[in-house]
Amino acid sequence: MKKNIVPLLAGAIAASPMPPASADEQPIATVTITAATRPAFDTVADAGSRLGLTLAETPASVEVIDRALMEQRGARTLEDALGGAVGMTVGGNPGSPGVASTRGFTGGFITYLYDGARISTATMSTRPQDSWNYERIEVLKGPSSVLHGEGGIGGAVNFVPRQARREASAEALLSVGSYGARRAAFGLGGAAGSASAWRIDVSHNRHDGWIDRTGQKLTHLTAAWQTTFRPGLRLDLSLDRLRDDLGAYYGTPLVQAALAGAPTGAVSDPAGRVIDRRVARINYNLLDAVMDADSLWLRARLSWEPAPGWTLRNELSRYDADRLWRNAEGNVFGPPANVVRTQSHVSHAHRVWSDRFDLGYQGTLAGLRHRFVAGVELTHTAFASDRRFSDGSATTRAALQVDLFDPDQGYYDDSRALTTGPGNRALLRTRVRTAAAFAEDALTLVPGLTVVTGLRRETIRLENEVDDLNLATRSAFARRYRPTSARAGVVWEAWPDMSLYGQAGTAAAPVGSSNLLLMNAASAAYPLTRGRQFEVGIKQRLAGRFDWSAALYRLRQTDVLSRDPDQPNLTVNNGRISSRGVELSASWHASPALSLAGNLSVLDAQYDTLVEAGGVSRVGKLPVNVPERTARLWSDYRIASLDLAVGAGLSYTGERYADNANTVRMNGYALADAYARWRTGPARVTLRVRNLTDRLHAKWTGSCAANQIVLGDPRTVELTADFSL
């Protein structure tokens, strides 16, 4: 399974012209800016550092997907936008929508931030969101615990909402498309008096879905206010209100090839099961299925510059979210032509208070350029969940079973007879109190050579209480963790607009799925799992026309829960997962009219040590939902005389597996998109076609991972008009 990926990076570097660009050369105007290219070589991304480092100064792979790029690519949601990042795939099912995979890690091992603040594990808090309300997305690859706390072994993603600015602006968008898709959004902002600015954005995104009863309604309000009391003293206030109502689809069951009247090649299975096109549009969920959420997030950030070069900042936030799932989640084929379902009812009441205080300095140390920040962060999370799951008895299975081709989905059955047994009716309450101290430093030893270091020490107090309503028992436990995470890197500006870097970083995460909120007593007894990465890379801009970057990394996770090979009934934490790979991205502005961009990720990930129930070894197997190859290519061309722009995109996602045994394979696929955009007056009208070839493809694993698969969208057409007034 191992592949020699070093020559790929060496060849890419050798092929690059190395002479420095002339300082007199000016960038040529371009049609678009791509995700593979930094929007500007001096762009600052908070996901990669709290020091205000530019992308060129950061010793890590950091990518920025800005507003212009989201519009160019037609990203309707944050998932659409994030899916264009190098080496990143996005999927999930309604139990945890919109989660990502990168560098061999998925779900809770990728930290999600909103305007630099974290709520909890991504698998618990992420929801589909319209891209309209966001200014940019910042993607950091590799361990991020030193910046953002436990969990981020694979990376971190920061979604930055639109900010308050004094420049007056008024924008709007209207869109219609296939399967009843409708979008409407507007944004307003500008100055308020001589010292303040404001911004408000509202978006509504809905569609009926290409699979029966899978429509969605997303309504999102974001607002920002900024006031400068006097030079050096500023207050930023923001509000984020999101409501969604989603038609939940948990996946299409794999059926025996002999029964399939229209078998497809989306999935390969040694047991002879396939995806039958005849049932691809059937939703086996309940007729009264529910998947909705309502969240409110308030933030206040105060910045003060008490002396030249010094900055004090304090950010206080409050997050409240209520979520509800009531569905038939498991859809497993059963002979002769049935679907055996499971039923669940889960609610979340999620409350988070957090406060972060830091002191920053930008100046000199012994005559050397010096940047430094240190601070503390306090977070209190209260989480409650009412949980109901159907048992696996023959009677329950028969009650929830439906016909494969003509299902009578029925309604939620709240009979206690379907939820017998330990843990199937329970009330969960979790509290997490976190106190962290952190510091980060960048010291330029000689012009062009900067050393960047970081350290974070956390104390995490976990308290859990479960009322088992079936057993009439209450259990509780408490656990304390004290992880330390660190990063050290060097950046060398070898030539103007060219940086070479190397770094080593560590991270910590809860064992299992990296989710403290659902941690049970058995898992909590183990120490946190650890991650360590070594990375080297290059970032370069040539003559203002050609941007490229490359990264070579090795990432390893240890202390993974496994089984003792000699005593398979005994759980131990000697498991280990590793990944190594190369990531390449480039953008070429060939002329003022034509631009080309692309990225490639080649990955080798595997379980180095893992034993599952029954003493079965998974050594050498690929983790679930991890593609070892991804590639994307975009072209954009502008016909200035007609005020017309046309473009196309091609993306490839390599094969992945739906189970740790690597028996159910989701086959690789390529998708093509195209658009044409015409400007008339204050409006831009865009016609976009996605999945031009109408390729049926497997996007992610379903709830019963080895038995049902979430399918990706078919061909769709969309007409959009956006206005700047």
TrEMBL record:
Q: Which UniProt keywords apply?
A: Cell outer membrane, Membrane, Receptor, Signal, TonB box, Transmembrane, Transmembrane beta strand, Transport
Q: Where in the cell is it found?
A: Cell outer membrane
Which InterPro entries does the entry mention?
A: Beta-barrel_TonB, Beta-barrel_TonB_sf, Plug_dom, Plug_dom_sf, TonB-dep_rcpt-like, TonB_sidphr_rcpt
Q: Which CDD domains match?
A: ligand_gated_channel
Show which residues constitute the signal peptide.
1-23
The membrane-topology field of this record reads: Multi-pass membrane protein
- Nucleotidyltransferase among the record's keywords? no
A single Gene Ontology CC annotation of this entry is: cell outer membrane
Where does the record place the TonB-dependent receptor plug domain? 55-156
The TonB-dependent receptor-like beta-barrel domain is annotated at 228-692
Q: Does Signal show up as a keyword for this record?
A: yes
> What biological-process terms (Gene Ontology) are attached?
siderophore transport
Give GO MF terms, alphabetically: siderophore uptake transmembrane transporter activity; signaling receptor activity
Q: Which family does it belong to?
A: Belongs to the TonB-dependent receptor family.
Q: What is this protein called?
A: TonB-dependent receptor
Q: Which organism is it from?
A: Pseudoduganella albidiflava
